[in-house]
């Protein structure tokens, strides 16, 4: 199988390469693709040196699968060109996520909708992926009525320049400002741009993508997405109301066997998920599970995952794995 990683020089692109290596995604040939300014740059992968090539060169080599993390406008322009050539594009940008003709996939939740003729497949937003992975089994068992989620998102979600801003501020150094305000020793209730309804694009991604992945428009979601000065992953405080009554012990039992989920829930011994522990891991960590004592059929929980791993690179590679395992790549 010939694989292309498009956006190979970016934070997520480099994480995709790490995940490909660690999960031993089988390939015969690897193409590293980036913007014109990076063409010719050398990168080492599994002890072999590769030269970064251009989009058109990659298209001409007809990769079987192209893992994209190059931004929405680049994907809009180039993904169809790869797809027309027979390449399966798995795109990490928001460009195709709400396109009714494209699938939005978390393999453990809705991988079964994938078909052999799918050519552009959308990878959901990181904050959506970790939430639906944890809530999927509970939706199946108790039917979710409403989700209220507050997120605490790592600066790595913005990219390297944001990490640099935080670290410069922490070191008392001057540097470029990615955010409208200081991020270190601060929090910003502002991720992506504000829309006419006074929610941010990030918050509406969680609303709309959750419905699409669950295939259920009746699931009501409201979100507040916050940037915090941390690395290692995104954290989410989730309040979820079900149609049916539940038993907390059964909820924990369901989560303890849910694919891709790790239960870390022993508050009496200070055991709960934290981004410092999720960093570099592919699982979604769930804890602080407790009944909402103010409302019937309602649960509180805490969900943490590395936004560059399961939130982006790993989920994209797992979509490729799913396609391979189910003979959907030819
Ligand atoms: C963020 N989810 O955290 C967005 C994009 N990665 O900034």
UniProtKB/TrEMBL annotation:
InterPro entries: Asp_semialdehyde_DH, Asp_semialdehyde_DH_beta, NAD(P)-bd_dom_sf, Semialdehyde_DH_NAD-bd, Semialdhyde_DH_dimer_dom
Record flagged with keyword Oxidoreductase: yes
Annotated active site: 126 (acyl-thioester intermediate), 234 (proton acceptor)
SUPFAM superfamilies in the cross-refs: Glyceraldehyde-3-phosphate dehydrogenase-like, C-terminal domain (SSF55347), NAD(P)-binding Rossmann-fold domains (SSF51735)
Keyword Signal recorded: no
Record keywords, A-Z: Amino-acid biosynthesis, Diaminopimelate biosynthesis, Lysine biosynthesis, Methionine biosynthesis, NADP, Oxidoreductase, Threonine biosynthesis
GO molecular function: aspartate-semialdehyde dehydrogenase activity
Residues of the Semialdehyde dehydrogenase NAD-binding domain: 2-117
Residues annotated for phosphate binding in this entry: 97
Entry similarity comment: Belongs to the aspartate-semialdehyde dehydrogenase family.
Described function: Catalyzes the NADPH-dependent formation of L-aspartate-semialdehyde (L-ASA) by the reductive dephosphorylation of L-aspartyl-4-phosphate.
Quaternary structure annotation from Swiss-Prot or TrEMBL: Homodimer.
Listed name of the protein: Aspartate-semialdehyde dehydrogenase
